Amino acid sequence: xxxxxxxxxxxxxxxxxxxxxxxxxxxxxxxxxxxxxxxxxxxxxxxxxxxxxxxxxxxxxxxxxxxxxxxxxxxxxxxxxxxxxxxxxxxxxxxxxxxxxxxxxxxxxxxxxxxxxxxxxxxxxxxxxxxxxxxxxxxxxxxxxxxxxxxxxxxxxxxxxxxxxxxxxxxxxxxxxxxxxxxxxxxxxxxxxx
Length: 194
What we know:
The protein is of the alpha/beta class.
């Protein structure tokens, strides 16, 4: 690779760890100080500060290094914007160690094909998720977030609130819930009595 290798890694959820992608970039020759990351952001979200910093760090002759294409972009439009920026800066792209020159016709074609595959994979994941949620809903397994208080506890909270002896903060402490839960419980009771 000519110039400096600049690394970019991303994980989609807060629970995921960046250690493995970080190590993969180091194995691809990127110094730890030149690895930019985004944690808990999906590839469809273009507002990724780590990606912005990585692209800003790239100079003519450098190479942007990613372990996998789907860590860089999950839509064709996003991939095209990134490749246009790399082309304008005369920066190459390395995907898993294979270097592609966006100024070369074959490199540009390959990148566009890979971007289309990444977008297709993202669409498949969304479709499977929707199908799974519909199946779970049909079986009665998908009910959303469960309330913090049982129905009898909710009734008791409303009774204590209506007695006017405790503030919302005191009710939250008595029932071991957040004040927002107290407000929602009271509001639901008020709405149901209208």
